[in-house]
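Bumping my old thread because nobody answered last time. Still need a sequence for this structure:
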């Protein structure tokens, strides 16, 4: 009987091939719902295809699609407003619809032999639909006509915060690569870019009121060679920074891809680049300071900001300029790994503890963060901090980014604060992808399956607290990442895994199926000339 059924299936395929369903496309992240149409209903994209859009101006997603097709598929399509063109064939239409949707980023795609129809309630939704369309294209660009499989898709993200971080303090990456990095995030439907602009090892953003921050703090005289503690120092002056005009350019570029750029200005620790320029803001103003030349946190050398009025005035001046550059409603203020031994040894700080009735140096940390939050809130923005900002008492409106495991995030959620989960053992992409990696990396191990199987909502949270888990984020620290090719090698394909964790329904995640779909994704990366980790092939 099984043989007979097989024969009937074979006969159906041979004599009625047009009625056979198309194979579901290999998409990452996996959509909420996807149904294959019949093979005969595949759409042929060619130079005569029109792009139709529903807005009065040329929709940004339509422009993005046209530029993409021109760059990678050598097709330049004409565009027209959707109104009055509804009955046209051989079209890609992008239409804003009015009505109630489950999620503001929701979109639908319908592919038939007459065309491709993308609809959404928001421009962001249209953009995400367009990004899915790019994955429906064949991953090779060597023809005049490209077949798009007949398919019906309904899709929206699981989490509102889908983030990726880039550290440009340890190693600096120019504007061209930062834009490329943002493109990579857009490809994977990420919507937040956490830009780590300052640290002990370099200050990377122009502040007009304090040019010393980049003139002095933007450069270190040497870097260690190899994995810490290294085999010596190279003695090479290293640095760089972004002008305010470059910052604006990057922010605009990200906005066009529906990505919010969150700047991070580290305080009160991780401030050696600041103190090299302004030693009077430290607890030991007479002692010489320099931009850090080795990795890691060393209490003996890494001084911290003094919690003085002079320091707060300085930080408020800096943050005023920063907030004017970034329309993001969120400002990341660091708050991690502050060496409190310096406050313990500081007469000023000990007097402050008595004056303010603080319990101890942990109370100073809380006092410091509260002061900064009050100022940032007064400008209509909200602070984000690493989970150490819980120490001594959490600032009233702060968002917690939990990196030392999930404990801090769980505690913050139970206090009804928004949380971004980014635990080091699952979300630090500077760690090795393989037990024996073929490049210099941080010593810990983070294989692809660990990223893919990470669940941002901890089992210990009850239903009332789960809603405070805003999302999750991958982090790319750059101690051992010195060039763009290395960033790409460390990012891919772990970014694919992260995108599916944050976008796709939990019950649809399946690691063996994800590995299968990666094979097609790698072909797309070849088209983009991305330096992904080919050991997964």
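Sorry it took so long. Here it is:
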């Amino acid at each position: 009987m099984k043989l007979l059924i097989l024969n009937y299936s074979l006969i159906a395929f041979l004599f009625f091939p047009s009625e056979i369903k198309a194979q579901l496309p290999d998409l990452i992240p996996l959509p909420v719902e996807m149904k294959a149409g019949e093979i005969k209903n595949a759409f042929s994209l060619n130079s005569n295809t029109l792009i139709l859009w529903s807005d009065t101006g040329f929709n940004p997603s339509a422009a993005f699609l046209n530029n993409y097709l021109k760059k990678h598929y050598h097709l330049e399509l004409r565009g027209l407003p959707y109104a009055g063109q509804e009955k046209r064939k051989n079209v890609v239409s992008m239409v804003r619809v009015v009505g109630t949707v489950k999620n503001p980023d929701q979109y639908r795609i319908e592919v038939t032999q007459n065309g491709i129809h993308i609809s959404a309630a928001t421009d962001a939704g249209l953009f995400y639909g367009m990004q899915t369309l790019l994955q429906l294209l064949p991953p090779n660009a060597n023809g005049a006509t490209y077949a798009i499989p007949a398919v019906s898709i309904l899709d929206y993200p699981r989490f509102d915060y889908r983030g990726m971080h880039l550290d440009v303090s340890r190693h600096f990456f120019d504007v061209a690569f930062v834009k490329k990095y943002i493109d990579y995030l857009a490809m994977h439907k990420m919507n937040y870019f956490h830009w780590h602009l300052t640290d002990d090892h370099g200050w990377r953003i122009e502040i007009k009121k304090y040019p010393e921050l980049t003139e002095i703090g933007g450069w270190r005289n040497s870097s260690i060679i190899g994995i810490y503690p290294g085999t010596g120092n190279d003695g090479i002056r290293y640095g760089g920074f972004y002008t305010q005009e470059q910052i604006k350019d990057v922010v605009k570029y990200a906005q066009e891809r529906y990505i919010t750029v969150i700047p991070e200005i580290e305080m009160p620790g991780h401030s050696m680049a600041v103190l090299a320029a302004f030693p009077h803001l430290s607890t030991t103003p007479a002692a010489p300071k320099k931009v850090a030349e080795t990795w890691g946190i060393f209490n003996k050398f890494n001084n911290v900001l003094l919690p003085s009025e002079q320091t707060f005035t300085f930080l408020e001046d800096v943050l005023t300029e920063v907030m004017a550059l970034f329309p993001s409603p969120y400002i990341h203020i660091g708050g991690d790994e502050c060496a409190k031994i310096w406050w313990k040894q500081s007469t000023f700080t000990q007097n402050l503890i008595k004056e303010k009735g603080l319990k101890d140096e942990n109370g100073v940390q809380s006092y410091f963060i509260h002061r900064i939050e009050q100022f940032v809130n007064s400008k209509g923005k909200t602070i984000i901090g690493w989970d150490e900002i819980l120490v001594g008492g959490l600032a009233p409106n702060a968002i917690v980014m939990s990196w030392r495991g999930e404990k801090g995030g769980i505690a913050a959620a139970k206090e009804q604060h928004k949380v971004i989960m980014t635990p080091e053992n699952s979300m630090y992409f500077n760690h090795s992808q393989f037990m024996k990696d073929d490049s210099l990396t941080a010593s810990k191990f983070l294989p692809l399956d660990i990223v893919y199987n990470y669940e941002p909502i901890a089992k210990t949270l009850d239903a009332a607290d789960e809603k405070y888990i805003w999302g999750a984020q991958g982090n790319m620290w750059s101690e051992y990442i010195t060039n763009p090719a290395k960033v790409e090698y460390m990012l891919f394909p772990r970014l694919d895994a992260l995108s599916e964790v944050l976008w796709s329904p939990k019950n649809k995640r399946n690691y063996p199926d994800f590995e299968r779909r990666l094979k097609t994704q790698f072909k797309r990366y070849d088209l983009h000339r991305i330096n992904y980790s080919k050991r997964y092939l």
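The first strand starts at residue 33 and ends at 36. Let me know if any region looks off to you.
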